[in-house]
Amino acid sequence: MRRRVVVLAVVALVAGGTAAGAGPPNAADLEAELVCPVCETTLDQSNAPIAQRMKAFIRVRIAAGDSEQEIKDALVDEFGPAVLATPPKSGFGLLAWLLPLAALAVGAIAVGLLIRSWSRLRAPPDDGQPLDPQLERLVDDELARFDG
Amino acid sequence: MAGHAKLVAQGVAVGLVVLLFTLLAWTLLTNEGGDLAAAAARGERPQAPDFTLERLDREGELTLSSLRGKAVVLNVWASWCIPCKDEAPFLEQVWQQNRDRDVVVVGLDAKDFRSDARRFMKRFGLTFPIVYDGPGDTLGGYGVTGFPETFVLDREGNVVEVFAGAVNAKEDRARLRAAIEQALSS
Question: Which of B7, B113, B119 should one mutate to test binding to chain A, selecting the residue with the greatest count of A CBs within 10 A?
Fold first, then answer.
């Protein structure tokens, strides 16, 4: 009985999560992901006439049952890809996502190389090499004088 | 090895700086838009950047350079722009009065919804050619900083005069008519 209750609870949670994901798009979320073509800030930050008009457009399209992607596609068709606050993860827009990662990788390699070169510069002399006898005698004399 | 790595790092850094300077120089050299109005005010006649854009008044596209041989009154507008509403009937009047004299009024609707622009055209009974540039890509080349702006081009596509803001005042309207005559006479 107890096991059945747990299974039902898990099923209800999963079903609830799926339903929330498949629900209508949220206007506020969309306004944060789209840019006003006149003031070039996101719609939620803009009160420009065209931004107001775009907000109204989004609400009408949500009420008409359009998905988030359909609404974005419609706005890109009107205002071009610059209307998206984040570049698309395909085509030329993919560069905007990949370049920072590439820059990070290049930076990490550069730092690694620098650390390697510095650590080599500061490496202690090889212990296997014999000390110059004259220098050794000098050191012994100095140590003896210091101790005495 | 360390020396080689250092040399490579220095080369990359110098390369990046050169690349950034090249980009800056390229941007400054290609961004001539802001100079159009200033050059026209000095009496020069800079070439208007060419464009091919979708038409809103009918099917197809319009290329600006296809109008060579005629004087062009190019008006940049948007349906959400309030001064554009006062200006629209005057532009239609200019078109009606001059269309048989080798003068073409061209509306360039930018940063606007197509449907809103068509509603605007219907409301004000605009019959001159109107092209659509939703993203506003052509505006930079013309140095447009606000709506509306009007450019009068001569028969060779050179800018004779620029009107920043609506041509609504009596003096501005007289100046526009004079600019059209100047464009036709060249």
Answer: B113
Angstroms from A49 CA to nearest CA on chain B = 6
Six-digit token string for B25: 């120089």
B159 and B48 Cβ atoms separated by less than 8 Å: yes
Tell if the pTM clears 0.80, that is, is over it: no
Tens place of pLDDT for every residue, chain B, 186 residues?
A: 567 777 887 888 889 899 998 888 877 666 555 678 888 888 889 999 999 999 999 999 999 999 999 999 999 999 999 999 999 999 999 999 999 999 999 999 999 999 999 999 999 999 999 999 999 999 999 999 899 999 999 999 999 999 999 999 999 999 999 999 999 997
Determine the Cα–Cα distance for residues B139 and B76; give it in Å rounded to an integer: 8
With contacts defined as CB-CB under 8 Å, which chain A residues touch B111? 37-38, 50, 79
CB of A50 within 8 Å of any CB in chain B?
A: yes
Q: Which residues pair with B52 in a beta bridge?
A: B63
User: Rounded to whole angstroms, how far apart are CA atoms A50 and A110?
Assistant: 46
A105 and chain B in contact, CB less than 8 A: no
Q: Is B94 left (phi over 0), alpha (psi -120 to 50) or beta?
A: alpha
Q: What value of ipTM does the predicted structure carry?
A: 0.79
Task: Suggest the residue from B84, B112, B118 to mutate for an interface test with chain A (most A CBs closer than 10 A).
Answer: B112
